[in-house]
Design brief:
Strands 5-4-3-9-10-13-11-12 form an eight-stranded mixed β-sheet, sandwiched between helices. Strands 6-8-7 form a three-stranded mixed β-sheet. A two-stranded antiparallel ribbon has the order 1-2. It has two domains: 1-37; 40-290, Vaccinia Virus protein VP39 (Rossmann fold, 3-Layer(aba) Sandwich), CATH 3.40.50. It has helices spanning 2-37, 58-65, 70-80, 95-101, 114-126, 178-182, 201-206, 209-212, 238-247, 264-273, and strands at residues 44-45, 51-52, 85-89, 106-110, 133-135, 138-139, 144-149, 170-176, 191-195, 219-223, 251-254, 261-262, 282-286. α9 (238-247) runs antiparallel to α10 (264-273). The chain is built from ten helices and 13 strands.
């Protein structure tokens, strides 16, 4: 009886593993098509008042329709009203860059994936914006070269096998640091920074030590995953990523309508559990008086 039960359990685990592999394969094939083979859409006037084109991926279509990340978009619009400069780290096709530029902000767009970069520049030109600073690089803690993995229009990563992506699609990209790009040229100005780099945020933020210390302190929205997409199961830099901000006098809240305060105790509990209970993977970092 025990042997039969064990065989059934093993068979069940095998089927689950097979289903997961088939799901990932189907997802990746669709993403490869959207990223490399599909024709670009025509420039479409968004509800936000700017033109946007992209691939046929559901993400890009949602951006055109004004349905992409509604909570984040609302939060970003509020931040733009209080900011002078927007730095878009992981700009993708430029949805948030265009949103900021349409609000008359000085914009820096950072995007290393060539297909996205092409769309980004087309979108800027479709709106006659030639004053946006575009940097075709990845960000890390030092300058150099690295491998960018994945075919995804929204999920290419410096981490191998991020979100189950195939190792087949990869390319070499240049790296620099945020401190190098920013320097001291925005001293005295309020900077708002978005960081969405698919798991590589800790290295990018350690290369922004001077930027974190600028006066006034920048406001940041950073995507940070604990166990959602990391190939090793748990993000080894999860707690240290939050600690970087706490050490520099920032307060942490969820970047959603809850605006929930996140404490060091929360992070320690989630790491111990192996599960985040904030209800989001996006966090807002700002000095306490800004919250």
């Amino acid at each position: 009886m025990y042997v039969q039960l064990k065989k059934l359990l093993n068979k069940s685990d095998l089927l689950k593993s097979l289903r997961k592999k088939l799901f990932l394969a189907k997802y990746e094939l669709k993403d490869i098509y959207n990223s490399y083979l599909s024709k670009s859409t025509k420039p479409t006037m968004t509800p936000y008042g700017f033109n946007l084109l992209g691939s046929s991926s559901i993400h890009h279509i949602a951006m055109q329709k004004g349905e992409f990340e509604p909570e984040e978009t609302k939060l970003f619009m509020e931040e733009f009203s209080k900011s002078d400069v927007f730095i878009d780290v992981g700009a993708n096709i430029g949805f948030y860059s265009c949103l900021a530029r349409s609000s008359d902000k000085h914009v820096l767009s950072i995007e290393p994936l060539q297909k996205n970069l092409d769309f980004l520049m087309e979108n800027l030109l479709a709106n006659n914006w030639t004053d946006v600073e575009v940097f075709p690089v990845g960000l890390s803690n030092k300058s150099g070269l690295a491998t960018l993995y994945g075919a995804s229009s929204t999920g290419a990563s410096l981490i191998d096998s991020w979100a189950g992506a195939s190792k087949i699609f990869k390319r070499t990209i240049p790296l620099t640091t945020l401190d190098t790009l920013v320097g001291e040229r925005f001293n005295g100005k309020q900077i708002f920074i978005k960081v969405d780099v698919e798991g590589a945020e800790y290295a990018a933020l350690t290369g922004a030590a001077n930027t974190m210390k600028l006066i006034p302190k920048p406001v940041w929205v950073v995507e940070i995953c604990l166990n959602e997409y990391h190939p090793d199961g748990i993000n080894p830099n999860y707690a240290d990523t939050f600690k970087l901000f706490w050490d520099n006098g920032y307060e942490v809240r969820t970047a959603d309508h809850h605006n929930k305060l996140i404490t060091q105790n929360d992070i320690e509990q989630w790491v111990a559990l192996g599960k985040c209970e904030s209800g989001t993977i996006n966090y807002r970092f700002a000095p306490p008086e800004n919250n």
